[in-house]
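dumping this here before i forget
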Amino acid sequence: MKKHHGFTLIEVLVVLILIGIIASFVTLSIETRHPTKQLYQETQRLAALLTLAQQEAIMATKEVGLHIDEQGYQFYELVGETWQLIKQDDVFRPYHFTLPIKIDLQVEGSTVSFTSQIPQIMLFSSGEIIPFHLILNTEPPQNIMYKLVGELSGQFNIDSESLP
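structure:
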């Protein structure tokens, strides 16, 4: 009787699956973080958190605010007559941007400074917000800009443009 030397189909398939899994891990770990992609992700994250904070304000019947500057942003809630930083909540904890970002914020058509620590963007328990235009852009040479627009009705929209 002859002995067959070789691999069974199952053994070959198991090896191919293992190679596929290892290759996917290598691809994920090698992925470079392009500033344009990072800026878009930061803008999307902020828009999602604003939507969530707006829903929280409606459900809990409380006023929520956002303070933003070029380092990051923090959510506040109105307790009595003072704004208090939301620290205990993992979702609304203070956040620092992962790349250098230049910010321009206009609330109701007026440019807002970043010097004070009070919220510049307000989310009301009625579902309304104070209208704003928030521009986040990268440093040269990319000059990519994303504009997050908050409308009185509570809608948030993201637009992208290349800066001149």
